[in-house]
Design brief:
- The protein is an alpha/beta fold.
- It has one domain: Rossmann fold.
- It contains 12 helices and 8 strands.
- Helix 6 links the parallel strand 2 and strand 3.
Length: 272
């Protein structure tokens, strides 16, 4: 089973758990049992989630809250890469208003079904969920104002292609504004090679300087990486436990090296 299949399986199972009344393990909701990890928890406040279906909140598997940090204006078109249960799409749609639109892109049928049901329950019309891969975005060139994403680019084995695609669909002057996990310093190779940690947004994390380099190579400028949470040794233990690695040996080596970050960049106005 390749990485893409593993990701689809995990997120499909998460969507089914939510539809059956459980947690995605764990998203923005309170922990169930011992499933919650420090990356995906406590990302949204009640003022944001109060008007959304519970299933949209339960299905959140991100590492940040791009809708709280991105500047979204009425009438703009927003694209969420890897939209999952739809929480960031629905929040974005409210902010851009009826004159704007929010697209959600996901490759997992179960998540798309859940997101569309959440849209129906929320009664939000200026939303469209698309099936596809973030390496091949099914939208035309120069068609969106803002690209957001929440801990999904890490899951791609071809991040250069993802960033080039994001650049392509953005209008000149458009903004890239994503939450993602990044690293500082070297990470043990055993973590990088572990497929389960890829699916958990950990092993696929780029170093912050690599992320900036790849954005620049794709054509972006005004690049900024702002850490929003640095994970300590107890956080490391939480997300490494049960992942088939020696927690006691690896946790001290990753302490302080992983962080959630808000990553901003702009497509130059002169570039098409």
């Amino acid at each position: 089973m390749d990485l893409k299949e593993v990701v689809q399986q995990k997120y499909g199972e998460a969507a089914l758990r939510v539809r059956q009344g459980g947690s995605s393990c764990c998203g923005a909701a309170p922990a169930l049992g011992n499933c919650c990890d420090p990356i995906t928890s406590n990302l949204y406040d009640s003022a944001q989630t109060g008007a959304l279906p519970e299933e949209a909140v339960l299905a959140s598997l991100g590492c940040g809250n791009p809708t709280a940090l991105a500047a979204l204006n009425p009438g703009e078109i927003v694209l969420d890469l890897g939209s999952g249960g739809g929480i960031d799409v629905l929040l974005s749609a409210r902010r851009v208003g009826p004159a704007g639109k929010a697209y959600g892109l996901d490759m997992t049928d179960e998540m798309l079904a859940l997101a569309r049901e959440n849209q129906r329950k929320a009664g939000i019309e200026n939303v469209e969920f698309l099936k596809g891969e973030i390496e091949r975005i099914p939208l035309p060139d120069n068609s969106v104002d803002v690209v957001i994403s929440n801990c999904v680019i890490n899951l791609s084995a071809n991040k250069d292609l993802v960033l080039r695609e994001a650049f392509r669909v953005l209008k000149p002057g458009g903004r890239f504004a994503v939450s993602d996990v990044v690293t500082r310093g070297e990470v043990p190779e055993s973590v990088r090679k572990n497929m389960l940690l890829w699916v958990g947004c950990i092993a696929g994390a780029l170093r912050d300087d690599q992320y900036a380099f790849k954005l620049a190579h794709a054509g972006f400028d005004s690049i900024d990486i702002e850490p929003t949470r640095v994970y300590d040794i107890e956080d490391a233990r939480a997300f490494l436990t049960g992942q088939g690695v020696d927690v006691d040996a690896i946790a001290p080596q990753v302490e302080g090296k992983f962080m959630s970050a808000f990553i901003r960049a702009v497509k130059p106005a002169s570039r098409a």
